[in-house]
Amino acid sequence: MDSQTGSNWFGLDGKLALVTGASSGLGARFATVLAEQGCKLVIAARRMDRLEALRDRLEAKGARVYCVCMDVSSVDSIEAGVAQAQALAGPIDILVNNSGVSTTQRLSDVTEKDFDFVFNTNTRGAFFVAQAVAKSMIERAKLLPNLESMPASRIINIASMAGLEVLSMIGIYCMSKAAVVHMTRSMALEWGRYNINVNAICPGYILTEINQAHFESDAGQKLIARLPRRRVGKPEDLDAVLLMLASGRSGFVKLKALGKECDRWPFMNSGLMMLWSERCPRWCSCISKRAGQRFKSIQPSLLVISQAMLARSTRLSIYGSLMTMPIAAPFGRVFLAMSNSWLLRKN
After folding, report:
1. Which of 132, 182, 228, 271 has a CA that sits 20 to 30 A from residue 199's CA?
2. Model pLDDT for residues 160-193, shown as the tens digit of each residue
């Protein structure tokens, strides 16, 4: 086991992270967690007053933080913001691509304005932010002779469980986040040769200031009552997964990382992430040993976060150690059952 402890274990000290949508909610939490692990930060959003307040709080704790005004619905603003970030702080090692908006209505009531509002931020904006950052990452990588010598670059797209499962009244939001999931696959496939890992986190129901009023309403309470743990998640429930994906510990985690809270698979929670790696011909032996038998498959391998990771990530370990995705029906049923069994043992 690695002898490093604390923030050094993730190896993020001194890394430069750009976090978009950092003025509130998950973005502010992501920025805070990365700062606590020693990252230099560039935080970006439209509301500069909110960014400056967050910067002041983080700098009071010793962090190095820069603020950049960025409207992700404008490609010009994205390109200017990324250029300013690098001019202020240097080359970007980690992108947390977090901006997102939604509307609530039936699909039959969606207007062109509604559609453009959601897609321009959630899909178009996310793509061009990732593209602008990836261009600079690729330029750095091309200066070095081989993959091993290239800097470890990370792009983490924040999608949603709504990109995996259709929810009523937010249809265009679901569509936009589904596009982000597939966008992540494409980016991972194309940019992996430059040592850029591209993954997506798909949170379930997470309590933020934007949705707090809804979850306190009668409708929100009825929804919570149907959830497996009878509660919504907190932003800090995503800390361990964010840090793992941002760090060098995720060197072989490519294509995507997904997590969700779902009534259909009640043992999967917003804190339980599903990960799989690229082009591996057999299931991880650690899973086979735990199950008491071995499975072989041409499907990508399932990954289990190491015990060292779990020892440092109590919030994630609460939700079980298996990270799985039912990508093929027969194998999906087997490993989902294993996941459920292990979760019950841990609890």
Report:
1. 228
2. 988 988 888 889 999 999 999 999 999 999 999 9
